Amino acid sequence: MKLYDAHNHLQDDRLQSQLPAIMAAVQAEPIAKMVVNGACEEDWPAVLALAKKYPQVIPSFGYHPWYIKERTAEWQKNLVSFLDQVPSAVGEIGLDRWIKDYDTPQQEEVFIWQLRLAAERDLPVSIHCLQAWGRLLEILQQEPRPQCGFLLHSFGGPKEMIPALAKLGAYFSIPGHFAYERKVKQREAFRHVPADRLLIETDAPDQALPTEKVLFPLPDFEGKPINHPANLRAVYEFTAELLSQPMEKLAAQVEENFQRLFASSETMCAAAKKPNVPVTKVAEP
Prior knowledge:
- This protein has eleven helices and eight strands.
- With 285 residues, the protein is of the alpha/beta class.
- An eight-stranded parallel beta sheet has the order 1-2-3-4-5-6-7-8.
């Protein structure tokens, strides 16, 4: 049985002091692949280094809506440069109306540009969305999308939107944090996700599981729990219980889904070796 983490942040500073021990635990688990998401230009070199060091890592480079105000004038060229270096995905990108002082026009401009770039190269995308589901659906309906599909990481939207999003190519990943009792609506939504669109994530070091479900504890950081990426098996166990499925059946389906979205290394390498896409070729919103 192989396990696949559709979304984490292994490069996060909160994990770095213990990274050798963390990766030893990951490698002792049946974790075949993990998608490690950069959130800003400052992150991208660390994600690249992890991809070169650990075979489990599929790197993903993108500008998260929380950090777009920090982007440089060269951010588009920089993003293209990182995508050219290794087989990659695009992410974490998205829309967020939950954060303080959000700038909707900037968020949409940056998100749409990255979505178009992913569509141009047919690379999978990892999308973050908080309190902007209606607008996200509109953009996905209006803009080009990668043929391979896209991931709605830690999907927290209404269950009623799942069919429309799935029709557009969406996959939906569930984190262990949804095991908390207060996440009733999120758990109910995942009972409506088509089996062939379900993925599982840790979002480590964030979205920790309830304490009683944690397999690999880490010390708290500034009073907040830190999620170990090797807790992926615990997320699978929670999801199997939620969906009333045997663990082996769930793992086989998730493996098939993951490979369909993120493709084989050979396919991703071929995509990465396509001629460089000039920044000017991807139209501005």
